[in-house]
């Protein structure tokens, strides 16, 4: 089976993270200065960037003591609504920095009184040039349409944002451990990856779930499986899954669970794995040894503190997506109907 550009870019993530952290960690002082004039955070993003923003939303509320919310760009671009955003830090997240809807919404937020941060891999993009502080990731050129290294470096940028905005309980050294953990994942045997791939080749739909800080991984994994494998993958918090959709679980509907190896939501994830197995669903995991023991098959990752764990959890999910796409005869580099830079119309 031939390799893909997506697979090559997945392998570039440890170095991309090292470059990004070296670039962004020195900017914590600038972020802290912005934080002194703001209280709340509004994230502006779409697609994979929106999933990354979910990570930022949890980090800032759990560890930064700030109310954070995901914005709806159409409020600005379609409705032209006005809002009092004084005291708000608007964080616009876009891999290219060129998505017109995101740039326009950031401008709208600034006009409404917000201070702005741009998170982008485009150093000379409008998003970087027009924000008060630009957190420019150093992923390098990304050719494959599915975001891999640009997504993981966005997570790193948002982790640095959390450090700058008052994450006093967070250890910057935890971030420095992540690239080595990704090297370990890439070097590990892939027997479980092959077996899970094989077991997913005949399914039409599946559930991908997690909770809290790991929710970003569930949402992004489901998106990747939809766009590259054309699989009807439902990504959601397991709390939402328990409120009705869990009724779809049966032997024809696999469940993929993502969880850090520590933290307050781990035991709930394990309990959900056991419930899914009792419904007859094939149950797969991405996480540590404790989650692996509750699943049929698991893609294990090195132990990382919960707040940085999503940067490790997403890599096995990307490997699974790339392998499954090729196993199904699809080209993961160029999924049908998608472009690298998406412009929202209307």
Widest sheet: strand ordering: 2-1-3-4-5
CATH topology category name of the largest domain: Rossmann fold
Query: What structural category do the secondary elements indicate?
Result: alpha/beta
Any guess at the CATH architecture of the largest domain? Answer: 3-Layer(aba) Sandwich
CATH superfamily of the largest domain: Glucose-6-phosphate isomerase like protein, domain 1
Number of helices: 15
Mean pLDDT value = 94
Distance between the termini: 41 Å
List the domain count as a whole number.
Answer: 2
Text of the CATH class of the largest domain: Alpha Beta
Elements, N to C (H/E): HHHEHEHEHEHEHHHEHEHEHEHEH
The proportion of strand residues reads: 5-15%
Low-pLDDT parts are none
Structural features, described:
This protein is α/β, with parallel strands linked by helices and 346 residues long. It has 15 helices and ten strands. A five-stranded parallel β-sheet has the order 2-1-3-4-5, with helices on both faces. Strands 7-6-8-9-10 form a five-stranded parallel β-sheet, with helices on both faces. The protein is globular and about 55 Å long.
Keywords:
single chain; alpha/beta; Rossmann fold; five-stranded parallel sheet; 15 helices
Quick rundown:
By secondary structure, the chain is of the alpha/beta class. The protein has 15 helices and ten strands.
């Amino acid at each position: 089976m031939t390799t893909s550009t997506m697979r090559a870019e997945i392998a570039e993530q440890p170095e991309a993270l090292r470059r990004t952290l070296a670039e962004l960690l020195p900017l914590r002082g600038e972020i802290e200065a912005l934080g002194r004039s703001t209280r709340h955070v509004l994230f502006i993003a779409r697609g994979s960037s929106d999933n990354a923003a979910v990570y930022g939303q949890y980090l800032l509320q759990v560890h930064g003591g700030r109310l954070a919310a995901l914005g709806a760009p159409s409020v600005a671009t379609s409705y032209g609504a006005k809002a009092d955003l004084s005291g708000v830090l608007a964080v616009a997240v876009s891999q290219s920095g060129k998505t017109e809807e995101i740039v326009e919404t950031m401008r709208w937020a600034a006009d409404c009184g917000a201070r702005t941060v741009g998170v982008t891999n485009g150093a000379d993009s409008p998003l970087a040039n027009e924000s008060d502080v630009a957190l420019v990731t150093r992923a390098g050129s990304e050719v494959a349409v599915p975001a891999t290294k640009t997504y993981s470096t966005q997570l790193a940028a948002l982790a640095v944002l959390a450090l700058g905005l008052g994450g006093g309980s967070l250890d910057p050294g935890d971030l420095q451990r992540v690239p080595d953990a990704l090297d370990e994942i890439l070097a590990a045997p892939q027997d479980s990856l092959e077996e899970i791939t094989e077991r997913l080749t005949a399914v039409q739909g599946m559930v991908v779930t997690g909770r809290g800080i790991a929710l970003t991984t569930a949402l992004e994994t489901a998106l990747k499986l939809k766009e590259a494998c054309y699989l009807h993958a439902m990504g959601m918090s397991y709390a939402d899954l328990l409120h009705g959709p869990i009724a779809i679980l049966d032997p024809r509907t696999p469940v993929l669970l993502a969880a850090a190896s520590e933290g307050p939501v781990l035991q709930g994830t394990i309990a959900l794995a056991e419930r899914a197995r009792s419904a007859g669903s094939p149950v797969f995991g991405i996480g540590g040894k404790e989650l692996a023991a509750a699943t049929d098959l698991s893609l294990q990752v090195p132990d990382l503190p919960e707040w940085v764990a999503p940067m490790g959890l997403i890599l096995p999910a990307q490997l699974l997506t790339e392998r499954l796409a090729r196993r199904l005869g699809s080209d993961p580099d160029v999924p049908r109907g998608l472009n690298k830079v998406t412009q929202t119309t209307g």
